[in-house]
Design brief:
protein phosphatase regulator activity; PPP4R4; mainly alpha; HEAT_type_2; Leucine-rich Repeat Variant; ARM-type_fold
Length: 185
């Protein structure tokens, strides 16, 4: 796929998006390009495509990311996926967790592969990243369910509520009601 094709993929039709998901995974499985090149082009495109407004497309890209994470070396995952902007990681892709196409296997993989990234972003040194996470924790919590939210997300919520930056605290308070409706007594 040429560079121009990758740059316009975000406006492509649904069928093309699904085909690209399969092609990107196939390229990695068959080792058709060096891992460094894959990381710089295909992985970055996958990460960017997670922010698609169509929940089915976002879910397909998230599924592709999870499959790719299983195949990539840990150093590439840490370098590329963890440096990903939280708005891309959290927006449409986590909204897809509550869509009917998202099944138990996806949720288990989210817990295993992406939850540590979410927790890391909640503790990022940049206050803008922590503020963004404040806006996204309710979407993450909806996707994870009550038990995982109590164990993994609630401690992050408490820490963000007590953040040293007023911007983070204010953002957390503005979005606090969204996550509280998900919790039990």
């Amino acid at each position: 796929m040429c560079r121009i094709g990758l740059e316009v993929l975000h406006v492509a039709q649904t069928e093309m998006q699904f085909a690209a998901c399969g092609a990107f995974l196939h390229i990695l499985k068959k080792d058709l390009v060096p891992l460094n090149n894959y990381s710089q082009t295909f992985l970055q495109t996958i990460l960017t495509s997670l922010d698609n407004r169509d929940p089915d497309i976002a879910s397909a890209w998230l599924d592709t990311l999870l499959d790719v994470i299983d195949l990539l070396p840990k150093d590439i995952i840490k370098k590329d996926v963890r440096q990903l902007k939280p708005t891309i990681l959290m927006s449409s892709s986590f909204s897809a967790l509550s869509s009917k196409g998202f099944n138990h296997r996806h949720i288990q993989r989210i817990k295993k592969d992406i939850l540590p990234i979410v927790q890391s972003l909640c503790q990022d040194v940049e206050y803008e990243v922590r503020g963004c996470m404040c806006r996204q924790l309710d979407a993450v919590a909806r996707g994870l369910g009550l038990e995982q939210t109590k164990c993994a997300i609630l401690p992050e919520l408490v820490e963000l509520t007590n953040d040293e930056e007023s911007y983070v605290r204010l953002t957390r308070f503005r979005n606090c009601g969204d996550i509280l409706s998900l919790l039990d007594d």
